[in-house]
Design brief:
The structure holds 2 protein chains of 2 kinds. Chain A has 17 helices and 22 strands. By secondary structure, chain A is an alpha+beta fold. In chain A, strands 11, 12, 13, 14, 15, 16, 17 and 18 form an 8-stranded mixed β-sheet that branches. Chain B is mostly helical. Chain B is about 75% helix and about 0% strand. Chain B is flat, with a radius of gyration of 24 Å. The chains are: A alpha+beta, B mainly alpha.
Amino acid sequence: MPRFLSVVPLVFVVAASCGAPAPAPAAETTSKVGGSVTFVAMTDPDTLDLHQTSNPVSSTIFGWIYEPLVYQDLDNSYKGLLAESWTVSPDSKTITFKLRGGITFTDGSPFNAEAVKFTFERLQRLGAKSPIFETFKNVTSMEAKDDLTFVMNMKDPYAPIFHDLQVSYAGILSPKTVRAANDNISRTAIGTGPYSLKEFQTGQQITLERNPGYKWAPALYQNRGAPYVQELRYRVIAEPATQLAALDAGEVDVLGLRAQDLAKYANDARFRVYDSFTFGLTYLGFDAKRPPFDNAKLRAALARAVNKAEIVQVVFENKLAKAQCCPIAESIQGYDTRLKEFELTFDPARAKAELEALGYKAGADGLRTMPDGKPFKPVLYTTTSDTHGKIATLLQAQLKGVGVDLQVKQLESGALLAATPKAEHDLYLNGYSWNEPDMFSLFLSCDRVTSSNRVLYCNGDLEKLIKAGRTELDQARRMQIYYDAQKLTMQEAPWQPLYMPVSKTAVNAKVLDLKQGQAGGLYWHDAWVKK
Amino acid sequence: MFRYVLRRLMLAVPVLLGVSICVFLMASLVPGDPATVLAGDTASAEQVERIRRDLGLDQPIPIQYLRFLERLAHGSLGESTRTHREVLLEIADRFPYTLALALGAVVVSTILGIAMGIFAAVRRGRAADYLTMGIAIVGLSVPTFWIALLGIIVFSLNLHWLPVTGARSPQSYILPIFALSLHSAAVKARITRSSMLEVFGQDYLRTARAKGLRERVVLLRHALKNALIPISTIIGLQFGSLLGGAFIIETIFGWPGIGRLAVQAIFNRDFPLIQGTVLVGAVTYMLANLAVDIVYAWLDPRIRYS
């Protein structure tokens, strides 16, 4: 038995054998078909080329059109979607996928191992902008052993591989369409998914149409055939006030709500409001590379001046966020309540004492100076988002409480992404969103101090843990590694974790039978529209 | 006249070159580049570097500019770094919507503004004059976005007459055009009133009345035609700013226009697209002003271009 399977039994699942419920009577099924659901997109998708974007709007659209080999079930375990099953070699470096037969792309061509190989090789060739590009750099060769057997060889064992294979960017393309389009698929999208692209009106709307030939929906759904909703539309509306007006006017059916709009929609019979956790959290970071915040004691002292409960209450009215103790958010595998004892909890008296001890003395105006006598005015960098602006203002007040005069600089995302690798900032307020404990390697590893590690924190011990966590396939041992990594991070305090955003989505009451996952994600395949 | 127009068009070339150099320099001074934005917040430094190389951003600025000129000579503004589509294609998708909005707003605001201006001028000093000019002051002072949101609340949410967003039906043009027109209608009303009042004092009007012409003819053919010169200047200038300044209205109404495209391009550091939208804006602005200069000659036969 391959090692991997002994510890993650759920991944070896043949979805088709999972005991699908008896199909609904034909008359009922037909009556559910039809209607449309309209979503909001902040912007156009930049491109529909699966391998040339990391854009969230594109990713959402891909989720309907393309299907990956595996999917994440309601309980967050990985199961086969286009793959029927898989085995992992004893050295954990080779994965052999047995693919599902009888599946066709919406251009009529068959889905097979050749298509999988074609897709992933294209990703290796053109995918520099794809979030899973780095994952496939570890893949040394791929082979279509027979029509329905696909083999993937990796340089090193890589534990988060199934996470990376289930994201919508890992969907399988139709080689026929891609070849016919000469690799230019920025406006074409042909997959095996429940929907196909009907129309792309730049700057206005993307329309998706039900794929009537779809009959391989995952076992988590009652409906294993084609979806009921005839058309899905993504309407481009950037302005929040207009989005709300469109929801009220019935032009839009699904919308994420802000704290200030919650009260209005919670009691409105025209809508249902769904809660869901997000897979990530927002943290206050310290530029750990440059003095004075290369000093862990100073970072810890400031972290103790932060009142997370107040942030969650004032900015989110205790509804749209939950305070977090630890670097891995509670919605993500690896979260461990035992870590709470290491949390740098709000304790202004202790923060003051620690600052005093470090030589940051308070002057006559109550504000502290650095040990060399210069005024202590650390600068916080954050995005231009309204939420981050409010939190930054609150942090200013909280730090002032311990005599620290925090300066705030809000930069739009392009400028912010460029500023942090140059270590222009002292403090950094932003979030991450990555449903894998391996988020450590993206946001806190030495390899990434010039890119996605925005706090430029590099610690040899943590680095060893991060490397171990990536290659350890034994689940229990892997979770222990992330326990240690989190403990170390909490003691060293390059981050003070603040909160996990909770999203509230209003859905028009005409939509029935929507399913929710453990973390609250919405699953649409059983949903239908009341006529 | 023909030679004048030709000369003006030739003069446009150095102006546009100047504009493109300015845009290029400004874009390169802004912190962040397309590669960092495209790669997103989880990308490695190596990934960013690779995208930068693919886009030719590792070259010195003058070389990048020369490449841009080379492409321009071949009739191409390059590819959008975000969508990989020809910039001209991206603009062609969006420009008609903005043009329709701007033309609609120019027509509505001109008719409304001139009518209000004449009405106020002939009733100078009376209550109707103060009332009309009061309305104009309100139109000038109230922010466009507020009018737009108010329009949505009243006409879309309460009365259900008009759609909230998009440009899918003729009805969807009404609110954006109206919201965009108010401010410029107010400007035109005030200018029409004052230039009409100036013309009212002229001898040729007394002559026209003495000839026994009807008051309507005196007003429209003699007074208005002469008062139109400053108004036509304003129309030309406003047309340019309506094209470029429709951004807020486009954002509020989810309008697929060029203003939103340009602002998105700036956020994405999509240099070719920024360059393209600015150049298109500059060209339309220049053409609008050229058109105004030609209209001058028609309005006032004393004006001759050579």
